[in-house]
Write a structure and sequence with these properties.
This protein is α/β, with parallel strands linked by helices. The protein is built from eleven helices and seven strands. The structure holds S-adenosylmethionine.
């Protein structure tokens, strides 16, 4: 693979901390243990080291990159791989249905994500994609811990509940900051999110997402207080909470995703 030009300027505004060690990327992708006929979406190609490993191992790879100064470098890689296509766009500006249409079967999202939009990207695909089956994404360690937290712990919150409502999440590897160039101020981890939209029966996904967010709106308040200040009938809330065998003073962080779904179904 061609080296990244010596004049290349890493751009903080695009979250550019690259991993240039091909052996590291090869070992990483091998550990994912995915079939060779997999289709893969990558977000943020950077220098293309991970991209090339993906193209060497899987049937089809589509990779987004926002930084147009990388175009020439990445096109040289694309020319060597018939199964690879770069899209030089902000992934958040493209409809998820359009991204889905690159693939004629389910795909995996594998990415070393730009940290400043990690959540936006993960939830865009988790909520909107009809073809995403799993994500393996590098995120800031604290974010990974929060996303995979157990209920009733300090890290548990809206993202945890939402991921657990539409799939499952686990940390598959911790990654030291020293493998990145430039070295960031934080350590990272790779999380695996398995998408399962039918895990629970949720009638109105959009309304459910708002519901969960409203349940956590006022930190340190009880679930009852959060819901009643959001317009739900007070007697109905108390009845629903009691029917679920919970105390009136229960806090949102004490509920599992399944309990949130039950409560939502009872109140709506
Ligand atoms: N995958 C490379 C690696 O592992 O070395 C680069 C990872 S770097 C953390 C994130 C990459 O995402 C950068 O190349 C950045 O330019 C790109 N990026 C940032 N925001 C993006 C967006 N909205 N859409 C597409 N790419 C984006």
């Amino acid at each position: 693979m061609a080296e990244l030009s010596k004049d290349f300027k890493f751009k903080k505004q695009f979250g550019q901390n690259f991993i240039l060690d091909k052996n590291f990327m090869n070992a990483l992708v091998r550990d994912f243990n995915l079939p060779s006929n997999s289709y893969v979406l990558e977000i943020g190609a950077g220098a293309g080291v991970l991209t090339e490993v993906l193209a060497n191992n899987f049937e089809k790879v589509v990779s987004f990159e926002i930084d147009k100064t990388l175009t020439e470098h990445l096109q040289a890689i694309e020319n060597q791989h018939e199964n690879l296509k770069f899209v030089f766009k902000d992934v958040l500006s493209v409809e998820t249905s359009e991204i889905d249409s690159f693939f004629d079967k389910n795909f995996y999202l594998i990415a070393n994500l730009p940290y400043y939009i990690t959540s936006q990207i993960i939830f865009k695909f988790l909520f909107e994609s009809k073809k995403l089956s799993q994500m393996f994404v590098m995120v800031q360690k604290e974010v990974g811990v929060r996303f995979c937290a157990k209920h009733s712990t300090k890290d548990y919150g809206i993202p945890t509940v939402l991921i657990d409502s539409f799939g499952s999440c686990k940390i598959v590897k911790n990654v030291s900051r020293t493998v990145f160039k430039p070295v960031p101020n934080v350590d990272s981890c790779i999380i695996k999110i398995e998408v399962d939209k039918n895990k629970f029966k949720i009638n109105n996904e959009k309304k459910y997402i708002d519901f969960v967010s409203n349940c956590f709106k006022m930190k340190r308040k009880t679930l009852y207080n959060n819901l009643s200040s959001n317009g739900y009938d007070k007697t109905k809330i108390i009845d629903a909470i009691k029917e679920m065998g919970l105390s009136e003073t229960v806090r949102p962080e004490n509920l599992t995703a399944e309990m949130f779904v039950n409560l939502f179904n009872k109140l709506n």
